[in-house]
Design a protein that fits this description.
seven-stranded mixed β-sheet; binds S-adenosylmethionine
Amino acid sequence: MHEASWTRDDAVATLDAPERRASQDPFRLWSRVGLKPGDTVVDVGAGTGFFSFPAASLVGPTGRVYAVDVSEELVELLQERANRGKAENLTPVLSTPAHIPIEDAAADVTLLANVLHGIPPSTVDEAVRLLRPGGRLVNVDWKKVATPEGPPVRHRLSMEEASSALSSHGVSLIDSFDLGPYHYVLVFVRPKPSRLPGHLVSAE
Ligand SMILES: C[S@@+](CC[C@H](N)C(=O)[O-])C[C@H]1O[C@@H](n2cnc3c(N)ncnc32)[C@H](O)[C@@H]1O
């Protein structure tokens, strides 16, 4: 896991490529995840906001999307785009790999899209910390096979590798599906705290 932050020019050229809308349709992702008005979403490693802005339109004025990135340039770009598009429910957030300045359990959904191979475990811990109990962590990633676009295959994580890496952070896999021809999606839940032993009635 070794990805540095992206510059604005690199990000716009790669992440805003028009063909992405067909192969990684963000509305299809959010529809399958069941995002709804009023939800709070944290997009960790938001880049240019490819998944964040569609989320903001779906959660509406009673919801909120935090578009988080370690790149100052990209956080500025996200703010410019939010202002221009009047996305008042989208808040760009500058983070570090070890800390995302958002309160615990604020989110119904946290998203890691095309970032897991490049972020340290501390960022995954932060993505889980931000989830309310019962909230979902969604991981979108490139299939570990040769594709006409995308990062080198050797940098990618297979679905099994991603599932095992994320499960070790205290979330449980509840769903998986394909997003277009090149991506898989894994959906995890942050378990609700189990009942205290004192509340259980002894069978004896
Ligand atoms: C491959 S891009 C993906 C952007 C977006 N998720 C998408 O799919 O369009 C990776 C992004 O993650 C950011 N990034 C890298 N390491 C990060 C970290 N530890 N925490 C948050 N963002 C990070 C980069 O600056 C870059 O914008």
